[in-house]
Amino acid sequence: IDIDLAGTGDGYDGQRDFTTSAGETVSADCHFVCTGRPVASGWLRGTFLGEYIDADGRLVVDEHLRVGRLKNVFAIGDITDVPEAKQGYLAQRHAMVVSRNLRLLLRSAGPEHKLHRYKASKAAITVTLGRRDAVSELPFMSLIGHIPGVVKPRDLYVSRTRRMMGIKGKNGES
Fold this sequence. Notes:
Layout: E1 3-4, E2 13-20, E3 25-30, H1 88-107, E4 125-129, E5 133-137, E6 142-145, H2 146-151, H3 158-165
Antiparallel strand pairs: 1-2, 2-3, 4-5, 5-6
Organism: Aegilops tauschii subsp. strangulata (Goatgrass)
Protein name: FAD/NAD(P)-binding domain-containing protein
GO molecular function, one term: flavin adenine dinucleotide binding
């Protein structure tokens, strides 16, 4: 299904209607625009973070995901200059490292070598092809068919993401 995102704006919250290429209307209470837009970091240039923005508009981070030379400012996700694909599951990995590092910083003013390091990932993606099949691009090979389709869950990680975000479903389950 192709979703026409034209004219939907940049909002993430609130009820929105989308029209598929088949003319079907899909209502959503939460959406994320993931259409290859450039990083919207221009406003950061006028802040204390401006000196840490690279030519591509991304924040320069170290191996602990700290911005520039700042000891207590971190960045995660697409805005970082980490040399890897900009994908949601990688942003979740960034968040795990940063949350651990923030906990360490809050507990003590210990030396930097105790902070967790983030290691950039090699490109990997799985795209579903109907109900049972998929295509996977892995760092060492590509697969197509039923095997990659079995690996990716039927709900496309929606239930896992909802649990991680603490979002309850209509029936109260996460």
